[in-house]
């Protein structure tokens, strides 16, 4: 028996060794890592920059939940990109670890930096030094289905002004029957809930996460008020059963079915809904608290920073200066229905015909970003005290016990 | 064994293959077989249906089974994703090919040595070679990556192929050792009489006989490498170097962990095609190779 497999393997090996040596990258390529969920927005900016600059930005998309590992191991091995765009919430951990380059002097000289949303400036400052800037913002807002509001006899153009109003509206919408539900949230998704549920608590006067060791967690009445109200909505079956197990996979898809009255979401929902469901009438408002006039938002999205071992830090800095200019903010972000990271630009020609985006841009000014080390352990991990508190309070019904347990657990994590 | 005895046994074997005493039982068994096949095929078929739905249709809650609309949107989406589907497929094939070469080049001689030669500490050495099977490789990745970064193997296809080969070699040595032990010693003794040296015994006599085993370890190496995600992500730092599994995780990511089901299913369909093709073409070798490993 002759062995044809051997010769073909040899051929493969030869081809392989020929292809395995890629040509040396051009010195003017600026390497950038972008987390996957920020990639679409980042690409708008990158394309705009590449169209008018000789030094091209080359993006590498990193899956969201691997960005921390990747940047940490890359930094340890000295193998990092020239700049990186990632979930702003991890900024404190990275700054503290010394992975990022101090760009204080350059940013202080940049007149555009002063106009960046306060939440971004806060989250990118450590020990008085600046390590990054806002890049592709997203902010949480309240989303409601105007068609269902009309059918339930509610005013489709008026956003619920308090959490109690959400509850009342949800009752009427659920009463429409035909598998229609008043409210939706992703019950097993810690990130979704810090995004859309925590602003209600903050609006109602609570402070959520400890900033440093010794601080108390989940203070104020807002936490209890919100959990009690949501538990009531769950008990009254105003929320579909599927919410309990949703790890975020259906965070957005459920609303698209047209059978959900109200839910919290991100600014991205506007363009996504217009694309996927052009016939759906929907409204965008602020996420309310427990009293009329209270409102808040979670300022999320990506910040841009330069790893300490960046090989083209000067070019990366040029890019950061450029992305804060009016041109980049308007032509790169606003033109694509993404809110600018400088709130003063909310009133622009692209948003004129879409007041819902203006609402989102205004929410950026009202919003907060928790400044916390160990955010992953406290909030984002699947077994975090944050998600356990929500699940125990809403699905199991033990509101006080849930809050107490979470307070202790968060305090312990902050003390590490 | 005489010819007559042999033909009796063959006839007996044929007899045993007809299952069930009457037609009813046979139909029942056929029905069970069809049912099990349907059960196995259902995920693939449902994946395919989801992949040709429009984006909104694919994410519908409650999910629909049959597509209401036909759309190639999801396939276009993965085709154009970042560096383009073919870049990822090319990287995956290249890394898999290198991993196969490494695995075959190392595991086949090792298996032969362990099967045919007697030396002190052989069984201990064999156990040591199997040890990596017992350690989760995820825990080794970061140190390996640090080392690779120092010696210039990070960000290279060969670097990733080495890791994939490490994952596959213990099992491959085990299988090759058993395959070689299944070859009758008399054949090699005959070759010795004809003046063959050890190397010739290995290449001319034993190796052709264990070809099914070699094909089997090559296939396993291919499938492991083709599907492996974490090492591919950690070792590679550029979009143009990523393999298919890394692209699949990124392409399905929406906001806050929302999943783009349509693109995910389209990616799954595309990524199983090479595995299915290779399996179908080499099925004959594959099955007998598995048996040679199973029965010592």
Draw up the topology in text:
The complex is a heterodimer of chains A (416) and B (296).
Chain A: H1 4-19, E1 30-35, H2 39-52, E2 57-62, H3 67-77, E3 83-87, H4 91-97, H5 104-109, H6 118-123, E4 125-126, E5 129-130, E6 132-145, H7 146-151, H8 163-174, E7 181-184, H9 190-196, H10 198-203, H11 222-235, H12 253-256, E8 260-266, H13 268-276, E9 282-285, E10 287-288, E11 295-296, E12 299-305, H14 313-323, H15 326-333, H16 355-366, H17 375-380, H18 385-396, H19 399-414
Chain B: H1 3-17, H2 23-51, H3 55-58, H4 73-79, H5 85-116, H6 122-130, H7 138-151, H8 157-181, H9 185-193, H10 198-209, H11 211-227, H12 230-235, H13 244-251, H14 261-294
Helix pairs in contact in B: 2-14, 4-14, 5-8, 5-11, 8-11, 8-14, 9-10, 11-14, 13-14
Tag the structure with descriptive keywords.
heterodimer, A: 416 residues, alpha/beta, D-Maltodextrin-Binding Protein, domain 2, two-stranded antiparallel sheet, 19 helices, 12 strands, 44% helix, 15% strand, globular, B: 296 residues, mainly alpha, MetI-like fold, 2 domains, 14 helices, 0% strand
Discrete helix count of chain A:
19
Low-pLDDT stretches of chain A: 1-26
The first-level CATH class of the largest domain in chain B is given as Mainly Alpha
The oligomeric state is heterodimer
Please, how many domains of chain B? 2
Helix-strand category of chain A? alpha/beta
| Helicity of chain B, as a percent range | over 70%
CATH architecture of the largest domain in chain A: 3-Layer(aba) Sandwich
Strand content of chain A: 5-15%
What is the CATH third-level topology name of the largest domain in chain B? MetI-like fold
Largest sheet of chain A: 8 strands, mixed
Q: Quickly give the structural class of chain B.
A: mainly alpha
- Mean pLDDT, all residues of chain A: 89
What is the total domain count of chain A?
2
* Overall form of chain A: globular
CATH topology of the largest domain in chain A: D-Maltodextrin-Binding Protein, domain 2
One letter per element, helices H and strands E, the order of chain B comes to HHHHHHHHHHHHHH
Radius of gyration of chain B, in Å, reads: 24 Å
């Amino acid at each position: 028996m002759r062995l044809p497999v051997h010769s073909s393997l040899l051929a493969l090996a030869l081809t392989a060794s020929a292809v395995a040596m890629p040509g040396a990258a051009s010195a003017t390529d600026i390497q950038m890592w972008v987390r996957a969920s920020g990639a679409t927005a980042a690409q708008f900016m990158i394309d705009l920059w590449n169209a008018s600059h000789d030094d091209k930005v080359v993006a590498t998309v990193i899956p969201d939940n691997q960005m921390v590992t990747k940047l940490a191991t890359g930094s340890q091995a000295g193998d990092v990109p020239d700049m990186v765009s990632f979930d702003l919430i991890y900024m404190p951990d990275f700054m503290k670890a010394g992975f990022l380059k101090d760009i204080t002097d350059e940013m202080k000289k940049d007149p555009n930096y002063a106009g960046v949303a306060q939440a971004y400036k806060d989250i990118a400052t450590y020990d008085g030094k600046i390590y990054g800037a806002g890049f592709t913002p997203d902010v949480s807002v309240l989303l409601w289905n105007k068609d269902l509001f009309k059918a339930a006899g509610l005013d489709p153009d008026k956003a619920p002004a308090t959490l109690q109003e959400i509850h009342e509206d949800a009752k009427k919408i659920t009463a429409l029957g035909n598998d229609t539900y008043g409210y939706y949230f992703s019950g097993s998704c810690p990130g979704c809930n810090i995004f859309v549920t925590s602003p209600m608590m903050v609006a109602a006067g609570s402070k959520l996460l400890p900033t440093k060791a010794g601080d108390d967690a989940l203070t104020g009445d807002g936490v209890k008020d919100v959990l009690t109200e949501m538990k009531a909505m769950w008990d009254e079956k105003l929320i579909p059963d599927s919410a309990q197990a949703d790890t975020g996979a259906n965070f957005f898809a459920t609303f698209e079915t047209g059978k959900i009255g109200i839910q919290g979401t991100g600014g991205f929902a506007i363009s996504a809904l217009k694309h996927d469901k052009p016939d759906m009438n929907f409204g965008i408002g602020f996420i309310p608290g427990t009293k009329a006039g209270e409102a808040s938002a979670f300022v999320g999205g990506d910040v841009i920073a330069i790893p300490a071992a960046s090989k083209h830090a000067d070019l990366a800095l040029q890019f950061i200066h450029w992305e804060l200019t009016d041109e980049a903010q308007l032509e790169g972000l606003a033109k694509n229905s993404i809110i600018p990271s400088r709130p003063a630009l909310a009133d622009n020609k692209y948003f004129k015909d879409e007041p819902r985006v203006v609402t989102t841009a205004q929410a950026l000014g009202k919003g907060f970003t928790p400044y916390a080390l160990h955010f992953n352990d406290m909030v984002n991990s699947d077994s975090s005290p944050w998600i356990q508190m929500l699940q125990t309070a809403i699905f199991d019904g033990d509101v006080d016990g849930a809050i107490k347990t979470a307070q202790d657990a968060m305090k312990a994590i902050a003390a590490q | 064994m005489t010819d007559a005895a042999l033909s009796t046994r063959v006839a007996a074997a044929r007899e045993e293959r007809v299952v069930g005493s009457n037609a009813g039982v046979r139909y029942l068994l056929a029905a069970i077989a069809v049912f099990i096949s349907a059960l196995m095929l259902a995920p693939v078929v449902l994946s395919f249906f989801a992949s040709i739905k429009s984006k909104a249709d694919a994410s519908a809650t409650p999910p629909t089974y049959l597509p209401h609309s036909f759309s190639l949107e999801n396939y276009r989406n993965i085709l154009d994703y970042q560096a383009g589907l073919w870049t990822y497929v090319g990287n995956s094939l290249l890394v898999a090919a290198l991993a196969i070469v490494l695995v075959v080049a190392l595991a086949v001689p090792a298996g032969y040595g362990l099967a045919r030669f007697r030396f002190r500490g052989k069984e201990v050495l064999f156990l040591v070679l199997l040890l990596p099977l017992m350690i989760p490789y995820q825990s080794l990745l970061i140190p390996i990556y640090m080392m690779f970064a120092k010696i210039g193997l990070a960000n290279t296809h060969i670097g990733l192929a080495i890791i994939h080969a490490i994952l596959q070699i213990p099992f491959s040595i085990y299988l090759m050792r058993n395959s070689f032990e299944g070859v009758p010693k008399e054949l090699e003794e005959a070759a010795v009489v004809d003046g063959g040296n050890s190397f010739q015994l290995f290449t001319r006599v034993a190796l052709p006989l264990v070809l099914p085993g070699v094909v089997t370890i090559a296939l396993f190496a291919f499938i492991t490498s083709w599907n492996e995600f974490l090492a591919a992500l950690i070792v590679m730092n550029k979009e143009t170097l990523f393999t298919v599994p890394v692209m699949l995780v990124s392409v399905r990511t929406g906001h806050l962990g929302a999943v783009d089901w349509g693109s995910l299913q389209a990616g799954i369909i595309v990524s199983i095609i090479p595995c299915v093709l290779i399996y179908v073409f080499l099925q004959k070798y594959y099955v007998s190779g598995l048996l040679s490993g199973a029965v010592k």
